[in-house]
What does this fold into?
Amino acid sequence: MPDVTKTPGTAAESAAETAAAAGEAAVVAAPASSGKPRSLWSDAWGDLRRNPFFVISALLIVLLLVMAAWPSLFTSTNPRNGDLTHHFLTKPEYGDVFSADWFGYDKQGRSIYARVIYGARASISVGVLVTIAVTLLGGLVGMIAGYYGGWVDSVLSRVTDIFFGIPFFLGSMVILVSFSDRKVWVVASAMAFLGWTQIARVMRGSVITTKQSDYVTAARALGAGTGRIMFRHILPNAIAPVIVVATIALGGYIAAEATLSYLGLGLSEPTISWGIDISDAKDSIRDNPHVMFFPAGMLCITVLAFIMLGDAVRDALDPKLR
Amino acid sequence: MAETGKKDVAATPNVSEVHVSDASTTQEVEAVLDAPVERGEPILQVRNLVKHFPLTQGILFKKQVGAVKAVDGVSFDLYQGETLGIVGESGCGKSTVAKLLMTLETATSGEVFYKGQDITKLSGRALKAVRRNIQMVFQDPYTSLNPRMTVGDIIGEPFEIHPEVAPKGDRRKRVQELLDVVGLNPEYINRYPHQFSGGQRQRIGIARGLALNPEIIICDEPVSALDVSVQAQVINLMEKLQDEFNLSYVFIAHDLSIVRHISDRVGVMYLGKMAEIGTDAEIYDHPTHPYTQALLSAVPVPDPDARERRERIILTGDVPSPANPPSGCRFRTRCWKAQDKCAEEVPLLAVPQVFVGKSTPAAHESACHFAEEKDVVGAA
Amino acid sequence: MTVTEKTANAPEPGTDGDKKAPLLEVRDLHVEFHTREGVAKAVNGVNYTVDAGETLAVLGESGSGKSVTAQAIMGILDMPPGKIPQGQILFRGQDMLTMSADERRKIRGRKIAMIFQDALSSLNPVLSVGYQLGEMYRVHQGLSKKEAKAKAIELMDRVRIPAAKQRVDDYPHQFSGGMRQRIMIAMALALEPDLIIADEPTTALDVTVQAQVMDLLAELQQEYNMGLILITHDLGVVADVADKIAVMYAGRIVETAPVHELYKRPAHPYTKGLLDSIPRLDQKGQELYAIKGLPPNLLRIPAGCAFNPRCPMAQETCGVDVPVLHQVTERDGTELAGRGSACHFWKETIHG
It folds into this structure.
């Protein structure tokens, strides 16, 4: 290997040698493990793939999403067709899995299995819609408050505090009670209207931390504009905690929708949802617990799946939070 | 190396006359900024620069209750092709000076003339043009590169912000050339910063700083986060680039031996003010300000034999808070020479009376009422 | 101080070991970290000894294993992922790695204390400084609250914190960096340990404050006749205070020497390179000598001598054989006391 010159040669000579030595050194130090660039996301993916909780929850969620999108793949029974001869019938023909009477029948003789399958759509739609809405709204408010600081931050933070102070269920009920026909988007809007504050707070904190990084200063020193700094430098570095919070919250929104529906202030018939079915079952729970059990069980599994996914994502994105 | 250039700048005064440009429209300003500057002519002139950070109380209605006087009246010149070192301890305001020169902070008062144009008052397109010509290298190579961007994106970003510098098709090639210039393998263009070591990252930071062909680079502690064995590599690279691209450096650091090695002139800062400024030999071999003397004598010298020999001035106490600096001379609370006069009168940065007109290296600017030479076996 | 008598008379575990044994001896210590990317070999067979009243400087760059060795001695390594596959840490002849957790605890903290680089994060921000200093006495010596506070003030006086009586109830953030480092030193001194390990004690401080703190440390060390392990990357600090130096590279000691010898005649190319890369007055305007390349990745330490890819003297054998720490001699074969070099070509390096 060539010796780095110690005796002063001409400037050009020694400069060239330094460069050569440095180049060589760079080759020596090149990570031998992979030539492929690794980013935070690919690292996180590598982590996730090996996390059994992630694998299980992801498979469950995929199944639930397919169920929500194409319920007819799972059952050919119409969930709205009641047959009073099946009133509270509980003895399904086992062995005939995925048949209409697998879970038994409810008060009106409707197939619980079919209703559970069809109920996924409403529950998951509400969860996903609310999550998207709060992420956009809360993210925007948090981003602006954190980035601009000063009086903008003061005003937006106080507004956030006010909304944070409104009890979520009480507020949602007050809003929803004034609607007679409560479709998915109505319930989702009401929940998003009150639920964005957590994301806004997380985003604001994350943006403030990121804003102080040297690379943001470096971009400003280059003359970068506000848009570039926000979307190229701050957002990609500040988004991880928001994604984690949003994923965990998704499960919570599904549960919240069920709670509201149970109280009779969430989705209304003819929409099929787990919450409505749980509510319907409450009068007959002593004699016919199976009517309550299946929709409630699906709800639990769904909420758990999203919370597990959120935990796994958090561990992968930021091992320090564990 | 820059031997010839160094001789020229040594003879120039520390604060020269400012030829304020009379450009008013954006086009005129841009024309002024594009004009070349002769070697040894002042390219950056800083006059009475002040930065106070207000201390406020209250949530919605903020009331100012005081100010941190981070920079409190600093003047100096930077000549084309030279390296001006700025040394001082933490809290002396040297990093704030760097941010002010980069217009990353708004000055409370004072001016920074770049080619006669006061850049503290510029905005919009004219400011963007200034930013193209004054670039910065940061201290911490671990935080100054966006971890979500590839090396190619990081070094190529200056071209996206200033598209006129390089046409779109050329950019990738330019980035690879820059990687080569700073001694990195051009094939690393698609890697992420965390795949590099500290020294390599600092090279990436330097490449980004060079991308727009700037005239001035402000270096804020560029090697202090690096391993000892890598520091020398980066210093050599910076000296090589200075010659190759005809750059002027403002080199801010606390390592006195490195500053001496790279600088033509050195300014010593204490609590937001310039205590002493002169050529490297004047400051290191003939310091007249007691703070400079103490600083030089306190630096551990890598020579165990000097342990017994050298006389060290150990200052008592800590640096006072810049929110509440002492009256008069800021150094008086830790100075062994302090008298009543020091508490009453702020010493001006000028050649001390005793040395005026004398052709001794001690005749350089020093902000002390009782400036005198003292033999200190200093660093380097 | 009364404490001195107490500890001197009381039969403590650890002191009844071999009196002739060095205060601390590290033998063939290995430390590795099991990470996702593989096994990082942070320490690969380190040997050193410290005697009472002696200052050993461990010099090295980041990743050289200098701090990990200290953490292993103090028992503050995170295990897992850390692991000590082999080696001994002998305190007065007793192996701390094999003794019971109870015995070990009695040595660490009381007999060996550590000073960290970052004083702010090493002090508890919600407890007053006086309380934290007094805690040592309350817990270890069962003093009352009042007595402990008096002791704390005494300690703060010892490390020359002005107005100790008034400041004893202040919180860590109310002190400046230099003062906080003094408090850390006071805390380490509280139980009058036999050995202090200082991990970059002045790196975070300003030069003028650095000198104050180093002086204080050296003075206290002499007064109490303590052993001191000073871990640093700063060649200047080492020259100022050390008696002997161990230079570390990639988890191994590559050179040991008394302080004066090392700076005059380094016997390892790495040490030589470090010394040569310090800017010197007569090199102004010239290129600095730079060790080429980068410090090694601990997951993939080069075969043979770890320094060989960066070494100007490297031959074929350097990439194959791991050099042992050779006794360094004069040209005529006279042994140089305390000098060793882990280089196949130490003769060429020291004698030109």
Summary: Residues 1-17 of chain C have pLDDT under 50 and may be disordered. The CA atoms of residues 325 and 342 of chain C lie 4 Å apart.
